[in-house]
Amino acid sequence: MKIVLITGISGSGKSVALRLLEDASYYCVDNLPANLLPNLVSTLSVQGHTQIAISIDARSSVDFARLPSQVDEFRAQGFNVHTIFLTADDNTLIQRFSETRRRHPLTREYKDNNDNSLVESIGLERERLLPMLAVSAIIDTSKLKARQLQTWIKDLLSLRNDSMTVLFESFGFKHGIPMDADFVFDVRCLPNPFYDHSLRPLTGLDAPVQEFLVAQPDTHLMISDIEQFIQRWLPRFEEDNRSYLTIAIGCTGGQHRSVYIAKILADRLIDKGLRAPEQVLVRHRTLR
């Protein structure tokens, strides 16, 4: 089992990191009390989970001193454990809390029956988290945007092979354009099998319709142009930390041309090794 422990200063990006790992198919737990960590790992291991990510913050102060030894124990048991400590300078943290207007988690840990100030809360949090510094990879997010932090964590945890999923979606324009589409390609200019009475009741998944479309030179040109566009820009969207990319192919009714072309594009993406089969999905929105 691969275990990623995420800790650090509030406002430094723990939620950003956890969302990234959730998108990478990790079982994620946020704000877990530190004393519950061994039981959670044991339970999830028995249930067959192979990747878990756990965020632990300074509210677990009583148990933080024990965390480094727990990390060593997990490793001795054969678990692959990574610990990431996120931090930022005080000025950056103050600005982030001001922008979000959220209260620091340690504000209500009273001193003289008064709330702690933001600066006092940050200082208290730094003190409590000290035990984890020695066993963690430390990332200072002061000058990082969320996208950059995600990239750094991907590199740190070797998540680069967890490529985004590409969804090819056929649809009919007469039923409306899919709202979830990132790209929409219109293939209505191609010859329409609908006007052949023998092909009308069939779909783009049936051999006679496919043979009809393969016989049209423009079909090959259209598929080639869309394929080249996808191959050129797919890496850029992946660098943008996208988890999904939806490519919609539309014809008039969503039954013949778009269905066939969506299937062919998906097959080619897999055949050329650009995506594993489980990272390519095909859906037909208006297929009867």
From TrEMBL:
Domain of life: Bacteria
Keyword NAD annotated: no
Binding site for GTP: D57, A58, R59, S60
Binding site for ATP: G8, I9, S10, G11, S12, G13, K14, S15
Record keywords: ATP-binding, GTP-binding, Nucleotide-binding
RapZ C-terminal domain mapped to chain residues: 164-287
A GO term, aspect molecular function: ATP binding
Domain annotation RapZ-like N-terminal: ranges: 1-157
Coiled coil: none
SUPFAM superfamilies tied to this protein: P-loop containing nucleoside triphosphate hydrolases (SSF52540)
A Pfam family that the UniProt record links to this protein: PapZ_C
Stated name of the protein: UPF0042 nucleotide-binding protein
Organism expressing this protein natively: Hydromonas duriensis
